Amino acid sequence: MQDLQLHTICRGLAALALAATATGTLADPFKLQCEVEGRLSENTTRVSPARVVVEIQAIGRHLYFNVVGPPMYALRVSTLETEEFKGENLTSAAQMGARRVERRTQAEAQLLIERTTMELSVHADVQHAGKAQRFSYTGKCRPQ
Question: In terms of pTM, does the model score above 0.85?
Answer without folding.
Answer: no
